[in-house]
Write a structure and sequence with these properties.
Layout (H helix, E strand, L loop, with lengths): L16 E3 L2 E9 L2 E8 L7 E9 L10 E11 L3 H21 L4 H22 L10 E10 L2 E7 L3 E7 L6 E5 L9 H10 L7 E4 L2 E4 L9 E2 L33 E6 L4 E7 L1 H4 L4 H10 L5 H16 L4 H4 L14 E7 L13 E5 L5
Antiparallel strand pairs: 1-2, 2-3, 3-15, 4-5, 4-16, 5-6, 6-7, 6-12, 7-13, 8-9, 8-14, 10-11, 14-15
Length: about 375
C-alpha cells in the first residue's frame, strides 16, 4: 500500500519531502548524472504517480546485463488505480523482458507496455463485481530509458518529454520535443482515430468545447480505460456516465506507445518528463529556460512553481491566493502536475553506474 500525495511537511529529503500539496525531491543522483522531481496535487485525491529507477535494467545484476536509468510519469484519470498499478508493474515488466532479450530496444519497451496493459486487464476482471469503477480508470504513460548512450522515450497519452540542448559555444539552451501527444484535440490524432474506425462516425465528437473520444475522454492511447477497449465491460454495474449508447467491436483506445531512440550527444544536458498539467501552463522553451538558468538543487519545484504562477495569472489572481485553494476545487484552476528532470552529464555516460536506486514520486514507503 502507498500513501496519497497530500501530507504535512516532512523534513527528511532522502526519499522526497511533502510540503502541503507539493511533494518534491530536490536533488538526487542516477547512473548518468543528477535528477530532481516534483508533484502538485489538484484533484481531491492525487491521480498521478511517477518513479525513477537507476541501476540494473534487468532482473539479473551480473555485469553482462544492461544498466541505466528509467524515468516514468503516469498521469491517471477517473481515479488513481491505473497509474498506481503502472508505477508498480511497468518497470518490473521491463526488467523481465530485458532479462529475456538481454537488450534495451524499442520493441522491448512496447512489449513492457503491452504486458502491463494485460496485467491491469486481469486485475479489472478479478475486481469487476466488487469494484466495477476500476474498468473506467486509466493512465497516460510516459517512460524514458537511458542506456548505453541512447535515450529511449515511450509515450502513450498526452504527457511530454522535452530535451534541453546547449550547443557548443552557446549560453542558451534550445528545447527539443522527444514525444508526440495522443490527444484528440490535435487534428492528426483525430484523423488517426477516424482511419482506425471508418464505420464509427461518433468515434470523436465535440463536447464541452473539447474534442473527446466518444464524448468521454481526450486521449486516444492509455493503459487501462478498459471500458473503451473491451465491450464486455459496457454494462452494469459500471456507472451510466461511462456506458455508451452504441457498442463497439474492436478497441476504441489502444495502449501501444510511440517509441523513439535518441543517440545522446555532449550538447544534450537534460530531459524534462512531465504530465500535461505542466505543458498547459508553460511552453517547451519556457520550461527549458528555467531549468537551464537556475541551480539544479530544487529545480523541479521551481519549475512547478512557475507553472502555478502562470495558472494564477490566467485566472487573474495572486499566486498566494491560488495556494489557499483546497484540492478538488483547485482542479478548476490547474491539473495534478508531475515532473522529473533528468540531467545527463556526458562524462558519466560511459562509466559504471552508481549502486541501484529507486524512488516513487509523491508517495512514501510505509
Amino acid at each position: 500500500m502507498v500513501k496519497p500525495c497530500w501530507r504535512p511537511c516532512i523534513e527528511d529529503d532522502t526519499m522526497g519531502r511533502l510540503d502541503g500539496l507539493v511533494w518534491h525531491k530536490d536533488l538526487g543522483s542516477h547512473a548518468y548524472g543528477e535528477f530532481s522531481m516534483a508533484v502538485i496535487q489538484a484533484n481531491r485525491m492525487c491521480e498521478d504517480y511517477s518513479q525513477l529507477e537507476s541501476g540494473p535494467l534487468s532482473s539479473f545484476i551480473s555485469g553482462d546485463h544492461p544498466q541505466g536509468t528509467f524515468a516514468g510519469v503516469y498521469d491517471g484519470h477517473a481515479g488513481s488505480e491505473a497509474s498506481k498499478f503502472v508505477s508498480h508493474n511497468l518497470f518490473f515488466n521491463l526488467k523481465n523482458i530485458v532479462s529475456e532479450r538481454r537488450e534495451v530496444s524499442e520493441s522491448v519497451l512496447k512489449k513492457a507496455f503491452s504486458a502491463t496493459e494485460e496485467d491491469f486487464l486481469s486485475l479489472v476482471k478479478k475486481q469487476w463485481m466488487n469494484n466495477p469503477q476500476i474498468a473506467s480508470a486509466g493512465t497516460c504513460c510516459l517512460a524514458g530509458v537511458l542506456h548505453d548512450g541512447v535515450l529511449f522515450v515511450a509515450n502513450a497519452g498526452d504527457s511530454r518529454a522535452v530535451l534541453g540542448r546547449v550547443e557548443r559555444g552557446s549560453k542558451r539552451a534550445s528545447a527539443v520535443q522527444l514525444s508526440n501527444e495522443h490527444n484528440v484535440n490535435i487534428a492528426s490524432v483525430r484523423e488517426e482515430l477516424y482511419a482506425l474506425h471508418p464505420d464509427d462516425s461518433q468515434v470523436v465528437i465535440m463536447k464541452h468545447k473539447c474534442w473527446r473520444v466518444r464524448g468521454l475522454i481526450q486521449v486516444s492511447r492509455s493503459i487501462g480505460d478498459v471500458y473503451l477497449k473491451r465491450a464486455e465491460f459496457q454494462r452494469e454495474p459500471l456507472l451510466p456516465k461511462f456506458r455508451l449508447t452504441e457498442t463497439f467491436e474492436k478497441p476504441i483506445l489502444n495502449s501501444e506507445p510511440e517509441v523513439t531512440a535518441h543517440k545522446l550527444q555532449p550538447e544534450d544536458h537534460f530531459v524534462i518528463f512531465a504530465s500535461d498539467g505542466l505543458w498547459e501552463q508553460l511552453s517547451n522553451q519556457e520550461a527549458v529556460d528555467i531549468v537551464h538558468n537556475f541551480p539544479r538543487n530544487g529545480i523541479a519545484k521551481r519549475l512547478l512553481k512557475a507553472a502555478l504562477h502562470e495558472a494564477a495569472k490566467k485566472r487573474e489572481m495572486r499566486y498566494a491566493d491560488l495556494k489557499k485553494i483546497d484540492p478538488g476545487v483547485r482542479r478548476h484552476f490547474h491539473d495534478d502536475i508531475t515532473l522529473i528532470i533528468v540531467f545527463i552529464d556526458s562524462h558519466l555516460v560511459s562509466k559504471s553506474p552508481l549502486p541501484p536506486y529507486s524512488i516513487k514520486g509523491g508517495v512514501f514507503p510505509r
